[in-house]
Design brief:
123 residues, mainly alpha, flat, EC 7.1.1.-, membrane, NADH dehydrogenase (ubiquinone) activity, NADH-quinone oxidoreductase subunit, transmembrane helix
C-alpha cells in the first residue's frame, strides 16, 4: 500500500468499514426491535397533545426574521471571540481593529435596515 494511491485505498477501505458497521447496526436494530403497531402509535405526535384539524397551519413570517437575526448575532459572536483572543498579540493590533470595525459596521447596517423595515417590532 505504498505509493501515491495507497493512502487513497486505505481511506476508501476505512470508509467502507465504517459504512458497513453503521449499516450492520441499523439492520440488527430492525431485526431485534419489537413491532406492534396500533392505531394510537401510528397517529401524529404533537408534544403530547392530540392532533386537531388538518396539517396545514399558517405561521407569521416575523418569527423567521427573528430567527435570522438571531443567527446573524450568533455568527457575530463566533467571530468576536477569536478576535478578542488575538487582539493583544504582537503585530495584530491596528489591522484587526480596523477589520473588526468594518465587520461590525456591516452588522450595524443590517440592524438599521431591520429597524427601518419595522421588523423588530413585536405586535
Amino acid at each position: 500500500m505504498d505509493g501515491y494511491y495507497g493512502s487513497y485505498v486505505l481511506v476508501a477501505a476505512l470508509l467502507a468499514i465504517g459504512v458497513a458497521i453503521v449499516a450492520g447496526a441499523l439492520f440488527a436494530n430492525r431485526l431485534l426491535r419489537p413491532s406492534r403497531p396500533t392505531p394510537d402509535k401510528l397517529t401524529t405526535y404533537e408534544c403530547g397533545v392530540d392532533p386537531v384539524g388538518d396539517g396545514w397551519a399558517q405561521s407569521q413570517v416575523r418569527y423567521y426574521v427573528f430567527t435570522y437575526l438571531y443567527v446573524v448575532f450568533a455568527v457575530d459572536a463566533v467571530f468576536l471571540f477569536p478576535w478578542a483572543t488575538i487582539f493583544d498579540a504582537p503585530g495584530y493590533g491596528l489591522t484587526t481593529l480596523v477589520e473588526m470595525f468594518v465587520f461590525l459596521g456591516f452588522i450595524a447596517l443590517g440592524i438599521v435596515y431591520a429597524w427601518r423595515k419595522r421588523v423588530l417590532t413585536w405586535t
